[in-house]
Design brief:
The chain has helices at residues 26-33, 47-62, 86-94, 110-123, 149-152, 210-215, 224-246, 263-273, 284-287, 294-304, and strands spanning 3-7, 12-14, 37-39, 71-75, 101-104, 129-136, 158-165, 177-185, 193-194, 221-222, 255-258, 313-320, 324-331. Helix 7 (224-246) crosses helix 8 (263-273). It folds into two domains: 3-165, Thiolase/Chalcone synthase (Peroxisomal Thiolase, Chain A, domain 1, 3-Layer(aba) Sandwich); 177-331, 3-Layer(aba) Sandwich (Peroxisomal Thiolase, Chain A, domain 1), CATH 3.40.47.10. The longest helix is centred in the last third of the chain and has 23 residues, at 224-246. It starts with a strand and ends with a strand. It is of the alpha/beta class and 332 residues long. Residues 24-25, 28-29, 32-33, 108, 149-150, 153, 193, 224-225, 227-228, 231, 261-262, 265, 289, 320 line the site of oxa(dethia)-CoA.
C-alpha cells in the first residue's frame, strides 16, 4: 500500500441536528451505536466527487503520478447513477482515460473486496499500480424522516482511497505488503439489509411504482438485530482465517482497522477475541457508517493519530449487506 487518502464533506450533522428531520435523540444514537455525528454532502456533490478528493490525496501520499495507475477499482452502494459504474465517472473526473475502471457492489465489504482484486492483479503481474477506492453519498439515499430513523441515523458520507503497487518482499516481517485477503458472501440473507424497490427485480414493466414510493421501498431497509448477530460472528471468523492462513497469532497484530457499522459490534468483536481495546481504531463517533469508505478512512485517520506506523501488522475486517464479509492482513 503505497499511500492512502481520505475525504469527508465539510457539513457536520450532530445527533441533535437530526431532530430537525426526525424524532430521535443523541442519547438513543450514542447508547446503541457510539455515533455522535456524521458528515453529509451538499446536494451538488456526488459519490464520484468525494472519491476524486480521496484519490488526489492518496496519489499525493504515495508520490505516484496518475499516469502510472493501471486500474481503478471502486466500491460503493451509493453510485452516481444506476449505470454506468461510478468508477467510470471517477475516471473521467480524474482525467485517466483508457485504463479499466471497475465498480464493486459489495457494500460495507467493498474496500476489502477491492483490495483483494487489486492484490491478485498485481501478484499475477498484470498490473503494477492500482487505485482502490471506497466512496459513499448515503445522505441522498436515506429516508431522513421518523419512518426511516432506524437506518438514517447510522450512515455518513465520505471517501477513502489507497494506491496499491507491486513490491519485492525480502523480509515479510518488515517489508510493506499485503499478506492475505479472504472474501465471503451468503446471499440467502440478501434481504436483511437492502433496498427493496430500485432495480429490475420487481416483476413488472413499470419502472417506478407510486405505491413503492409511498411505502418508502426506495430506501434501505434493515433487520438490525439479525445484521448485528451475524456481524459479531463473521468478523472474528474472517480475522482468524487471515491469521491462520499466514501463521500469525492475534498478538502479532499491531492494529485492527475494522468496518465501522456500530461501536458495539466492534467492542463485542474485541471482547470475544480478547483484543486489547487500544489496538482497535474506531472512527464511527465522528463519521458514522461510511460503508465502503470506512476502512480506508480508518487507515488515514489512524495514521494521523499516530497509531499506524511503518512496519506494523494491520488486520482489517468488514461485514455488511449481502451478507458479505472479508478480512485482510497488511504489513504497513
Ligand atoms: O454496515 C452494516 C450494516 N449495519 C449494521 O451492522 C447495523 C447492525 N444493527 C445495529 O447496529 C442495531 O440493531 C441498531 C443500532 C440498528 C438498532 O439497535 P437495537 O437495539 O436493535 O434497536 P431496535 O431496532 O430494537 O429499536 C428499539 C427502539 C424501537 O422502538 P420500540 O419499538 O421499542 O418502541 C425503535 O422504534 O428504538 C426505536 N428507534 C429509535 N429511537 C430513536 C429506532 N431508531 C431510532 C432512532 N431514534 N434513530
Amino acid at each position: 500500500m503505497l499511500g492512502v487518502g481520505g475525504y469527508v464533506p465539510p457539513r457536520v450533522w450532530k445527533n441533535d441536528d437530526l431532530k430537525e428531520l426526525m424524532d430521535t435523540s443523541d442519547e438513543w444514537i450514542v447508547q446503541r451505536t457510539g455515533i455522535r455525528q456524521r458528515h453529509w454532502s451538499e446536494v451538488d456533490k456526488d459519490t464520484s466527487d468525494l472519491a476524486v478528493e480521496a484519490c488526489h490525496a492518496a496519489l499525493a501520499d504515495a508520490a505516484v503520478d496518475k499516469s502510472d495507475i493501471d486500474m481503478i477499482v471502486l466500491g460503493t452502494l451509493s453510485p452516481d447513477h444506476e449505470f454506468p459504474g461510478t468508477a467510470c465517472f471517477l475516471q473521467a473526473k480524474l482525467g485517466m482515460p483508457g485504463i479499466p475502471a471497475l465498480d464493486i457492489r459489495q457494500q460495507c465489504t467493498g474496500f476489502i473486496y477491492g483490495l483483494a482484486i487489486a492484490d491478485q492483479f498485481i501478484r499475477s503481474g498484470t498490473y503494477q499500480k492500482i487505485m482502490v477506492v471506497g466512496a459513499e453519498t448515503h445522505s441522498r439515499g436515506l429516508d431522513r424522516t421518523t419512518r426511516g430513523r432506524d437506518v438514517a441515523v447510522l450512515f455518513g458520507d465520505g471517501a477513502g482511497a489507497a494506491i496499491l503497487g507491486a513490491t519485492d518482499v525480502s523480509d515479510p516481517s518488515s517489508d510493506p505488503h499485503v499478506l492475505t485477503t479472504h472474501l465471503h458472501a451468503d446471499g440467502s440473507h440478501a434481504k436483511e439489509l437492502w433496498i427493496p424497490a430500485d432495480g429490475m427485480g420487481l416483476h413488472t414493466y413499470e419502472r417506478i411504482q407510486a405505491d413503492h414510493l409511498e411505502k418508502g421501498l426506495q430506501y434501505p431497509h434493515m433487520n438490525g438485530k439479525t445484521v448485528f448477530t451475524h456481524a459479531v460472528r463473521r468478523m472474528p471468523e474472517a480475522l482468524h482465517e487471515a491469521l491462520g492462513a499466514t501463521g500469525r497469532r492475534l498478538e502479532d497484530v499491531d492494529l485492527f482497522v475494522l468496518h465501522q457499522a456500530n461501536l458495539r459490534i466492534n467492542e463485542m468483536v474485541a471482547r470475544q477475541m480478547k483484543i486489547p481495546e487500544e489496538k482497535v481504531f474506531n472512527t464511527i463517533d465522528r463519521f458514522a457508517n461510511t460503508t465502503a469508505a470506512s476502512i480506508p478512512l480508518g487507515l488515514v485517520e489512524a495514521r494521523k493519530a499516530g497509531k499506524l506506523q511503518p512496519g506494523m501488522l494491520v488486520a482489517m475486517a468488514a461485514f455488511g449487506s449481502g451478507f458479505t464479509w472479508a478480512s485482510a492482513l497488511v504489513r504497513w
